[in-house]
Amino acid sequence: MSRLSSLAIGLVIIAVAACGTATPASPVSDGRIKVVTTTTILADFVTQVGGDRVSVESLVPKGGEVHTFDPSPSDVRRISEADVVFLNGLGLDDWLAALVADAGSKAPVIALGENLAGVQYISGGEGGSAGVNPHLWLNPAYAAKYTAKITDALVTASPANEAALRAGGAAYITALEALNTELATRMASIPAANRTVVSFHDAFPYFAVAFGLTVDGTIVDAPGQDPSAAQIAALVTVIRTKGIRAIFAEAQFSEDLARTIADETGATVVSNLYTDSTGDGSQGTYEGLMRWNIERVAAALTRP
């Protein structure tokens, strides 16, 4: 029998077996709240609040790029099985809407970055809602607001666990408040003249406001969009004119352009900062990645 014939018979057998098989039952619940998030940072927030009462999956993998993420069929299944879905919103992860529609999910979809009381939204979005920058979580005070919103949504999904969930949320908000104080203290050592920087893309405005920096330029308008030679030349001029000491480079992007500009200007490239994703080791949690970022930024801006 030829290999082609054998393959054809095998496919027929599989098809017949599939037709004769009952529709698979839904996975047996272990009692935990099934949560899907768009990013690993949001997944960490959920884990910190819910602990062992939640089961969390991030659609964008660690080190992945949320702006340009291309969902797979398996992501539709994840959404279809979720009790709650969290995204950032504000244009960062709008691709989720089509995924939820394809999954036919009835789970509530919570945009954590939108309609937050007490937030000073900053313009300069990446094609998102009303041109608002979506990277609020890089200010720990705003991360605490995400946490409060997550807590409320988890309680709605599982009222029987309200006491434990609210205790988890309150404890994490306290930890974030302490983190904010710790990081601000570290950044206080930076001389006023050194507090202007350039970033790879427009991810740092809330970080800058929180810790007293000024972002005087970005290398790309948005991830996936290369700058023109004229744009690079203009940025080089800004760096030289203002004496900018540091260029922020992010772990999920190539730092080649940042290195090229640094060679032209003498600025220091602050490598492997984490913005849209957690990392490995100490960067595996939001608190860890923020400490990692602050230490590298402060060291670069206080060097002789």
Distance, first to last CA: 77 Å
CATH uppermost class of the largest domain: Alpha Beta
**How much beta, percentage-wise?**
5-15%
Widest sheet: strand order?
Answer: 2-1-3-4
How would you describe the overall organization of this protein?
- The chain has about 300 residues and is α/β, with parallel strands linked by helices.
- The chain has two domains: about 150 residues, Rossmann fold (3-Layer(aba) Sandwich); about 120 residues, 3-Layer(aba) Sandwich (Rossmann fold).
- About 45% of the residues lie in helices and about 10% in strands.
- The protein is built from ten helices and eight strands.
- The strands form two sheets. The protein has a four-stranded parallel β-sheet with strand order 2-1-3-4, with helices on both faces. It has a four-stranded parallel β-sheet with strand order 6-5-7-8, sandwiched between helices.
- Helix 3 packs across helix 4, helix 5 runs antiparallel to helix 6 and helix 6 runs parallel beside helix 10.
What topology emerges from the helices and strands here?
Blueprint: H1 3-19, E1 33-37, H2 40-50, E2 54-58, H3 73-81, E3 84-87, H4 96-103, E4 109-111, H5 140-157, H6 162-187, E5 196-199, H7 205-211, E6 214-218, H8 229-242, E7 246-250, H9 256-265, E8 268-273, H10 286-302
Helix pairs in contact: 2-5, 2-6, 3-4, 5-6, 6-10
